Structure formats: structure tokens, C-alpha cells
Amino acid sequence: MIDLKLLESCLKTRYIGRRIYHFDSLPSTNDEAKSLARGGEEEGAVVIAERQTHGRGRYDHLWFSSPHGLHLSIILRPQVNITRVTRLVMVAGVAAARAISSYGLDARIKWSNDLLIHERKVGGILTEVDTDGGMEFCIVGIGINLNVRHDEFPDEIKDIATSIMEELGEEVSREEFACRLLNEFEDVYDSFKAEACDEIMSEWRRYCSTIGRLVRIRTVGETIEGEAVGVDREGALILELPNGRLMKVVSGECTHLWR
Where in the numbering of this chain does the BPL/LPL catalytic domain appear (predicted)? Predict the structure, then answer.
């Protein structure tokens, strides 16, 4: 179980994680964070669960939630146009990649919300927005496979998943990792609020392993293949199709294809 006093003692943040709600088990940390936000909880509050019974990724796909992982959600109330919310995926991606890289690991981001090490998924990001004519709040959920053994992963993802422990060869402190993640998140989020989006975008591109790859994108009703040649300022993936035409993809499930 996470030691909250230890976690709080190493935080260097001003507001992210200064109020933490800790649960032994939740259906979903994002759902709990949304409930708290609707009740007026302030920006920066964090929900952490030892395990999730119905953790999910994009498109309501189930997310494997081991009790040896880290599952948290952050309440944000950015005073920005709702069209910019997609950039918060990049904020979270950069923060998580920094935290993973601080252990000497080669963290990568697969467009748009997967965290990889050696092409295996080590974590994921899920952002959800509540609107009422504008953006009332945004929830950023981050799940990281920390001290998960390979034999803990379900058979269907064993070949594509990894953990920090598997890559390092030793366990890591969950409190220390959470602290590094939240510290980095506040730093990148402050840059977002200061409209330093070009700097965030530049760093995100450096971590992104999708650009320059042949990819398959599954969207609602169609599957597209092409070369990922870039990402625009709002996070849309730019594909070059086999006929040479450029196409912008706002959302979809991305698979890296080997040449």
C-alpha cells in the first residue's frame, strides 16, 4: 500500500497532489475524480487507487490494473478553450516520459496516449472533459505498470506489455515514482498554462516513436494505413497515404507496423 506521508514528503509541487484521495480499490480513478470535481474539488487534487476493478483506456477498452502498478487521476481546471484540451494528453505524456526516463529507461510515446519501453506498453493516459458551454474541468488519468511481473499480465497482452521493474530488473518505490510523476506534471502543466505549447510540442515529438513509422489507424468505420509524417499543434497525426495524399487523423487506435 502506498505510504501517503512518504509520498507527500518528497513532493515539490505547489498544488498538484497537495490533496490526495487514496483508496484500496475503485472501479475507476477517473470516475472518482469526476465525482469529486463535480462536487467542487479544486485543481490539483489527485485520486490514487491500489487497484481498479473497471479501469479503462480510450474507447472504453479495459485497462489491466495490477495492485503492483500506479493508478492515479488528476483534477484540472484550465482556463482555456475546450479545443485545446487535446494538448493535455501531450502534457501528461511528456510528464510521464520524463518520470520513466529519470530511471535511465528509454521512454517513448506512441500516438496518442500510450507509453512504451522497447515497443512494449508500460503505461497509458486517458483524458476526460466535463463541459457546460465551456470546459468545467478535465480529468487526466495515468496508469503505469511499476512492479508488475511478466507472469501477472493476462495472456492476451504478455507479448506487448512490460513494467518498470521488468526493464530495470528490480522493484521501484511506488511513492518515489508517483512523486517524480506529479512533480514533472506540474512543471509541464505550468508551461501549458503559460502558453509555452511549442516547447511542450517539441519535447513530445522527441519522445514520440510513431513519427516516421508505417502505421495502421482504426477509426470509427474505417482502417487507414500510411506513414506517420508529423503531428500538428493540436495533437492530430498527419499521415502520408500510399497515393501520396496527406491526411489528418484526430483520433483512433494506432498500431506500429514493421517495414
Answer: 19-193
